[in-house]
């Protein structure tokens, strides 16, 4: 998309986290993201990291000024049934999502991270 003088590119949501161990258990162990990089100004200061899965990139931040908990992010997916099957096969006791057909002609799978952020994976119906 371009207006002639500039072009917009991809979006990288920043999601607030409060506990590194819980964030890793949810995003890496449960959802299957990989950690691309991590940053802390010093030991015992807030963590900031980038995670990715395929072409989906998210930033997770313990910094209070970066964002508020409780965000919702829509992530387009291919083969939602396969994602659902992978999540169902994992032993993560805090989420058992299903697939929902919506009135706006998508199929959606919604999970909430331990910090109140909701990830909505969707595909066209």
Number of helices: 2
Largest sheet: 4 strands, mixed
Radius of gyration: 16 Å
Number of domains in the coordinates? 1
* CATH class category name: Alpha Beta
Count of extended strands: 8
Helix content range: 10-25%
Strand order of the largest sheet: 1-4-3-2
**Average pLDDT for all residues:** 94
Shape: globular
Which structural class do you get from the secondary structure elements?
Answer: alpha/beta
CATH superfamily: 2,3-Dihydroxybiphenyl 1,2-Dioxygenase, domain 1
Q: Which percent range describes the beta-strand content? A: 25-35%
Task: Provide the low-confidence segments as ranges.
Answer: none
Query: Gap between N and C termini, in Å?
Result: 25 Å
What pattern of helices and strands is seen along the backbone? EHEEEEHEEE
| CATH topology heading | 2,3-Dihydroxybiphenyl 1,2-Dioxygenase, domain 1
Q: What CATH architecture do you see? A: Roll
């Amino acid at each position: 998309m371009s207006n002639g003088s500039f072009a917009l590119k991809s979006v990288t949501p920043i999601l607030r986290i409060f506990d590194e161990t819980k964030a890793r258990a949810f995003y890496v162990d449960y959802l299957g993201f990989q950690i691309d990089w991590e940053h802390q100004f010093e030991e015992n200061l807030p963590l900031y990291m980038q995670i990715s899965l395929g072409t989906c990139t998210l930033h997770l931040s313990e910094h209070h000024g970066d964002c508020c908990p409780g965000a919702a992010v829509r992530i387009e997916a291919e083969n939602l049934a396969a994602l659902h099957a992978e999540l169902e096969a994992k032993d993560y006791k805090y989420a058992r999502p299903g697939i929902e057909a919506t009135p706006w002609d998508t199929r959606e799978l919604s999970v909430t991270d331990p910090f109140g952020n909701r990830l909505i994976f969707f595909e066209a119906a």
